[in-house]
Each structure stands twice: as C-alpha cells, then as structure tokens.
Amino acid sequence: MADYQLYCFAQSGNAYKAALMLNLIGADWEPVFVDFFKGETRTPEYRGKINEMGEVPVLVHGDTKLSQSGVILTYLAENAGQYGVATADEQREVQRWILFDNHKFTSYLATYRFFNAFTKPLDPAAMEFLKGRIKAGLGIVSKHLATQAFIVGDKPTIADVSMCGYLYYPAEEFGFDIAAENPPIAAWLDRIKALPGWVHPYELMPGHPLPKV
C-alpha cells in the first residue's frame, strides 16, 4: 500500500490541488476513486466512514485522515519540507491567498463550471452573477501576477497549488478561455506546468472521461 491515499475524482479541482501537491513533492500515493456523479459522497457510508462533510478530497496518511484542500496542502508542505515559506509574514500571506481562493476564487469557478459543463445551467441571471464574480477574482489575481512570478514571492508555494486548482481544465467547460483573457495568469500557469511532477488533472486522477448517458 502507498504511503498516502487520496479520495478523489478527475473533475474535482479541489481534489486536484491535493493530487498535484502529492506529485510535486514526489510522494508515494495512490488515488481512491469517488463516484461523485453517482452520488457516492451523499451516501451514509461515505459520510460515516470517509468524510462527514460529504466532500473530496480526503487524504489518508497512516492514522491521519484530513479533508479540506487547504488543510491537506499545509500538512503535506510541513511533512515534505517543500512548497512552504521561510517567515511568519510569508506564512500569513500564503494563508491569506488560500482563504481568498476558497472564498472568492475556487468557489465561484467551481460552481459556474459545474452548472455549465456537468448539469443544466442555472437561471441566466444567476450564471451571469457567478461569471461577474469570477471575472472580478481573475482580475485581482491577474494584476497580482503581473508583477511577480508566483502568488507569494519568487518561488512556488502551496498558495500557487491552491489557486491553480481549477485553471487547467478545458476552456469549453467554462465557456470562456481564462488563460487567453488573462496573460499574467497564463504565464503563471506555464511556470507551474514546468515544475517537475506536474500532470494534467484528467491524467492524474481517475474518472475521466465521464460515461456517456
């Protein structure tokens, strides 16, 4: 058995954050497929034995079981001594961007993509509201990356791993091309893609392509 097991599925950008981090640090890990689209995360068994929150990712490392991507990334960085930072000020900056990602970035991107690509779209006004929030978040990140190579300083950290979680998925799943519309983000994504261990989410995790209905 591998050192780490990651409960995940290919379409989850939050799971990709953890899977990518495991790959980047060269961890001995294996994916455990979660059939989200058939409702596995909503079952009493999953919520009773795997994660009471009914979500992925879930990381298992010996007797340790963790959920929430930010917690998992922090744990892996501490264990591996990689993708962390040197000072308390930098650590707070990493946390600031991970919280921004979870609240203002990933949350809107993930919701919009889910309804656009995998189910029936919401009311057009609701979709436009989400898209407006996405554009605002992308603008903030694009402006930030116009003056530096990575989210915190001149080297990649778990803030970058968190922020990029949904940005490698195909443009057609969003209905617009994030990289093409935001050159600083495109350049940053290329820098992350060049890191040893980077793999596309649809190649790194099980469950792609989805079965045709």
Q: Mind explaining what this structure looks like?
A:
The chain is α+β, with helices and mostly antiparallel strands and 213 residues long. The protein folds into 2 domains: 4-83 and 198-204, Glutaredoxin; 88-193, Glutathione S-transferase Yfyf (Class Pi), Chain A, domain 2. The protein has 10 helices and 4 strands; from the N terminus they run βαβαββαααααααα. The chain has helices at residues 13-24, 44-49, 69-80, 88-118, 124-145, 158-163, 171-174, 178-181, 183-193, 201-204; strands at 4-8, 29-33, 58-61, 64-67. A 4-stranded mixed beta sheet has the order 2-1-3-4, with helices on one face. The longest helix is centred in the middle third of the chain and has 31 residues, at 88-118.
Mean pLDDT, all residues: 97
- Give the CATH level 1 class of the largest domain: Mainly Alpha
Structurally, how many domains make up the residues? 2
Briefly note the structural class of the backbone.
Answer: alpha+beta
Pattern of helices and strands: EHEHEEHHHHHHHH
User: Rounded to an integer, what's the Rg over CA atoms?
Assistant: 17 Å
Number of strands: 4
* Spatial ordering of strands, largest sheet: 2-1-3-4
* CATH topology tier name of the largest domain: Glutathione S-transferase Yfyf (Class Pi), Chain A, domain 2
Head-to-tail CA distance between termini: 34 Å
CATH architecture of the largest domain: Up-down Bundle
Low-pLDDT residue spans: none
- Our count of helices gives 10
Strand content: 5-15%
What is the 3D form?
globular
The helicity comes to: 40-55%
Instruction: Report the sheet with the most strands, covering strand number, pairing sense and barrel closure.
Output: 4 strands, mixed
